[in-house]
C-alpha cells in the first residue's frame, strides 16, 4: 500500500481586523517573504515537493489527459473459477455499451441522449409538492397543456423576489427577459412547434460565463464593466437554441477562486438543505438553484471541485467532464486554465446526461487555445502547450446506449426497478483506503453503504494504490493559483490598484499567495502532473472507476462574517478539495451524486466517481444505477424543506413523461 500524507493546515479562520492585517502585510514590500514563511509554517510539505525535489518527467502543461492504454493482467483463471483480473464479457466497457455521436449539432446530441435515457428519463421522487421536477416532467406538462412556460416564469419570479434577497441564489435576473422567453416558448407550444424537450425549461448560468443580456461580473463589483458581453458562451448558445429559459446569472465567490459560497458584495449563498450552512463553491448559486427547485439544470464550472463540492453539500448531481471535452472550458474564467472545466449540474443523473450532451463538443477547440506566451507569468511552457494542443485527436461525444438497462416494471408501483438485477456486473470499483477514509466518521459510513449497494448491483470493489496524491495536492495548488493570477495580470485588473483594491479581503489574500509562485514552480508542477497521470494510469490497470467521498465533511456552518469582511479559511480550503482536486489536475472525468444523509442530520453526503479519460459514459451508467437502487432502498433524493416546484399542478406526471421518452426514442431511433 502506497504512503498517504496530505498537507492539512490548521490555521484558524481569519476575518475582521486579523484578515485586514494579513492582507496589509501580504500587499506590502515584505509580502512575498511573509507568504513564503507562512506557507512553510502551515504546510511545509507543499513547498518541499515543489522546490526541493526533482522530477525527471517532462512537464505536461495543457491539462488534456491522453487515453489510457490499460494492459491486460496475467490471467489467473482455473477450470472452476473465472479470472479475478480479466474483464468479463458483461463488464461495462465503453466500446460495448456506448453510442458515439459524430455531429456537433446540439439537436443531434440531445436526441442521442434521449436514446440513452430510454425509460429512465425521470425519477421516482417527482410525486410530492416539494419535488424537483425533471426536464421531461416540464416537457410533458407543457405538451399537454397542464401548465405553460409563462405560468412557470411567473411562479419562479415570485419565488426569486421573495427569497433571493436572503438566499442569494442569483447575482442578477431580469424579470422582463424571463417573461419574454417564456412567452415565446408558450407560443411555440400553442402552435405545436416546440424546439426540443428543453423548450421553456428554466436554467441558470454561473456568472463567470457569458449569457445575454447580462454582464459577466465574476462575482466582483467591476469586472462586468471591463469587457462587454456580445454573445453567449457556447453552452448557453446551445441551450438557447433548444428553447431553454435562462433565469439569470448564478452566484459565486469573487472570481470563483475559492470553494465557499461567501460574497460580501452580493451576499452569501445559503444552502437550501439548511440555511445556516454554506452551499459550497464556487458554483454555489448553480447548485443551490437546482437544489431548491428553481430549475432542473444549471451550468457551473469546476477548477478544483467548484461544481462537485456544492453538488455534494446541496444534494444534487455535478459532473466534471474530461478536460477538453467541452467547447468553452478555456474561457471559464475569462482566460486560460488547464484545470477549469465547464460543468453540468442537475437534480438527477438523467437530467445531467441531457445537459452534458448538449454542452459537449466533438473535439477539443485547438483554434481557441490561448497564446500564453503573451502572458508573462507563464512564458516557458507556451510552445509545449501549443504543440500538445496540435496533437490532440478528435474526441467524438460518447453516451451510454442505455442509461439503465431495460427491465420489467414493478407490479405494485408500476415503476421500473433494478432490484434483483446486476446492471453493473463486471465493473471494478477501485478504492484507495487511506485516501477514501480520510473523512468524518459519518461520511465514511455513507461511503461504506454506497459501496455495498454497488456490490449488490454487480460491481466488484477492489483495493488500489495511489502513491502520488501529495504531488497532486502541491501541483494543483501551484497550477490553479498561478493560472488564475496570470489571467488577472493579462487582463490588467490584478496590476491596477484602483481595481484590485475593490476585491474583498479574502480574495486579495488569495491572489497575493498566487503571485508568490514562480515560473520555475509552475514548470515543476507540470512535471508533477505527468507523474500523477502515470499513477492514475497504473491504478486504472486494476479498476474501471475510482470511488471516494465527494467531500470530507458535510456542509459547514456559514461564518458570521460571510456578508461583512468575509473569511479566509485555509484549513477549509484544503479540506474541501481533498477528493476533488485530483480530477482537475489530471484532467480525468468525475461525477458527484448524493449517497445519503448524515445520520441524525438533514445534510446530504456526496460520493464521487472518477473515470478514465473520455469515459464519461461509464460514470453516468454507474451513477444512474446507484441513484435508482437508493430510491428502491427507500432513500429518495435529499430534497430541502424549503423548495419550489414550478409545475406543481402537473405533479405526478412522471409515468407519462417516461412514456413520452419511449415514444421519442421509438420515433427517432428504432428502425
Describe the structure.
Residues 160-373, 418-620 form the Amidase domain. This is Amidase domain-containing protein. It is a single chain. The protein is α/β, with parallel strands linked by helices and 671 residues long. The chain has 24 helices and 15 strands. The protein has helices at residues 16-26, 31-42, 44-51, 94-97, 106-117, 135-143, 149-167, 175-190, 223-226, 234-241, 284-292, 308-314, 349-359, 382-391, 433-436, 441-456, 469-491, 497-500, 505-514, 519-539, 570-576, 581-586, 616-632, 654-668, and strands at 98-101, 170-172, 202-206, 245-250, 270-271, 274-278, 297-302, 317-320, 341-346, 397-400, 428-431, 460-463, 545-549, 590-597, 604-611. Strands 2-4-3-7-9-8-14-15-13-11-12 form an eleven-stranded mixed beta sheet, sandwiched between helices. A hairpin with a 6-residue loop joins strand 14 (590-597) and strand 15 (604-611). Helix 5 (106-117) runs antiparallel to helix 13 (349-359), helix 5 packs across helix 24 and helix 17 (469-491) crosses helix 19. The N and C termini lie far apart (51 Å).
Amino acid at each position: 500500500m502506497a504512503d498517504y500524507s496530505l498537507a492539512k493546515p490548521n490555521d484558524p479562520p481569519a476575518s475582521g481586523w486579523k484578515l485586514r492585517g494579513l492582507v496589509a502585510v501580504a500587499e506590502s514590500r515584505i509580502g512575498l517573504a511573509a507568504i513564503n514563511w507562512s506557507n512553510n509554517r502551515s504546510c511545509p510539505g507543499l513547498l518541499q515537493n515543489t522546490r526541493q525535489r526533482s522530477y525527471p518527467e517532462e512537464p505536461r502543461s495543457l491539462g488534456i489527459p491522453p487515453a489510457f492504454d490499460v494492459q491486460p493482467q496475467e490471467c489467473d483463471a482455473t477450470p472452476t473459477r473465472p479470472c479475478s483480473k480479466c474483464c468479463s464479457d458483461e463488464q461495462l466497457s465503453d466500446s460495448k455499451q456506448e453510442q458515439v455521436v459524430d455531429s456537433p449539432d446540439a439537436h443531434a446530441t440531445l436526441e442521442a441522449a434521449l436514446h440513452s435515457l430510454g425509460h429512465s428519463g425521470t425519477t421516482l421522487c417527482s410525486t410530492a409538492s416539494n419535488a424537483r421536477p425533471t426536464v421531461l416532467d416540464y416537457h410533458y406538462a407543457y405538451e399537454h397543456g397542464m401548465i405553460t412556460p409563462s405560468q412557470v416564469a411567473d411562479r419562479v419570479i415570485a419565488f426569486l423576489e421573495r427569497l433571493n434577497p436572503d438566499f442569494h441564489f442569483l447575482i442578477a435576473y431580469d424579470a422582463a427577459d424571463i417573461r419574454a422567453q417564456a412567452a415565446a416558448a408558450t407560443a411555440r407550444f400553442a402552435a405545436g412547434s416546440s424546439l426540443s424537450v428543453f423548450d421553456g425549461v428554466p436554467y441558470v448560468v454561473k456568472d463567470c460565463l457569458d449569457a445575454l443580456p447580462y454582464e459577466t461580473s465574476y462575482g466582483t463589483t467591476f469586472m462586468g464593466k471591463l469587457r462587454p458581453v456580445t454573445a453567449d458562451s457556447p453552452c448557453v448558445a446551445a441551450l438557447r437554441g433548444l428553447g431553454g429559459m435562462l433565469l439569470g446569472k448564478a452566484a459565486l465567490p469573487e472570481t470563483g477562486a475559492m470553494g465557499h459560497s461567501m460574497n460580501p458584495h452580493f451576499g452569501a449563498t445559503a444552502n437550501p438543505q439548511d440555511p445556516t450552512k454554506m452551499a459550497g463553491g464556487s458554483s454555489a448559486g448553480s447548485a443551490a438553484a437546482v437544489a431548491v427547485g428553481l430549475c432542473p439544470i444549471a451550468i457551473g464550472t469546476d477548477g478544483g471541485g467548484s461544481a462537485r463540492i456544492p453538488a455534494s453539500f446541496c444534494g444534487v448531481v455535478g459532473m466534471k467532464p474530461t478536460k477538453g471535452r467541452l467547447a468553452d472550458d478555456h474561457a471559464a474564467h475569462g482566460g486560460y486554465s488547464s484545470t477549469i472545466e465547464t460543468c453540468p449540474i442537475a437534480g438527477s443523473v438523467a437530467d445531467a446526461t441531457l445537459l452534458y450532451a448538449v454542452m459537449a463538443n466533438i473535439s477539443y477547440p485547438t483554434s481557441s487555445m490561448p497564446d500564453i506566451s503573451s502572458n508573462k507569468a507563464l512564458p516557458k511552457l507556451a510552445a509545449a502547450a501549443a504543440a500538445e494542443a496540435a496533437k490532440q485527436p478528435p474526441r467524438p461525444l460518447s453516451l451510454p446506449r442505455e442509461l439503465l438497462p431495460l427491465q420489467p416494471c414493478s407490479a405494485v408501483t408500476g415503476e421500473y426497478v433494478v432490484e434483483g438485477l446486476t446492471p453493473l456486473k463486471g465493473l471494478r470499483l477501485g478504492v484507495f483506503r487511506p485516501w477514501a477514509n480520510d473523512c468524518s466518521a459519518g461520511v465514511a459510513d455513507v461511503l461504506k453503504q454506497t459501496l455495498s449497494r454497488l456490490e449488490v448491483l454487480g460491481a466488484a470493489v477492489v483495493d488500489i494504490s495511489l502513491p502520488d496524491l501529495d504531488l497532486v495536492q502541491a501541483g494543483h495548488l501551484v497550477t490553479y493559483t498561478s493560472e488564475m493570477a496570470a489571467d488577472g495580470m493579462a487582463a490588467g485588473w490584478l496590476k491596477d490598484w484602483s481595481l484590485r483594491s475593490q476585491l474583498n479581503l479574502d480574495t486579495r489574500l488569495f491572489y497575493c499567495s498566487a503571485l508568490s509562485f514562480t515560473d520555475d514552480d509552475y514548470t515543476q508542477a507540470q512535471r508533477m502532473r505527468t507523474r500523477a497521470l502515470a499513477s492514475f494510469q497504473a491504478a486504472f490497470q486494476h479498476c474501471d472507476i475510482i470511488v471516494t467521498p465527494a467531500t470530507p465533511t458535510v456542509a459547514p456552518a456559514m461564518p458570521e462574517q460571510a456578508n461583512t469582511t468575509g473569511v479566509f479559511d485555509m484549513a477549509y480550503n484544503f479540506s474541501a478539495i481533498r477528493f476533488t482536486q485530483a480530477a482537475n489536475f489530471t484532467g480525468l472525468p468525475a461525477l458527484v451524486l448524493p449517497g445519503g444523509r448524515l445520520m441524525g442530520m438533514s445534510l446530504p453526503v456526496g460520493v464521487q466517481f472518477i473515470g478514465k479519460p473520455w469515459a464519461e459514459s461509464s460514470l453516468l451508467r454507474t451513477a444512474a444505477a446507484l441513484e435508482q437502487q437508493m430510491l428502491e432502498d427507500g432513500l429518495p433524493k435529499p430534497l430541502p424543506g424549503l423548495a419550489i416546484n414550478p409545475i406543481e399542478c402537473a405533479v405526478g406526471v412522471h409515468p407519462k413523461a417516461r412514456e413520452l421518452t419511449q415514444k421519442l426514442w421509438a420515433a427517432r431511433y428504432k428502425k
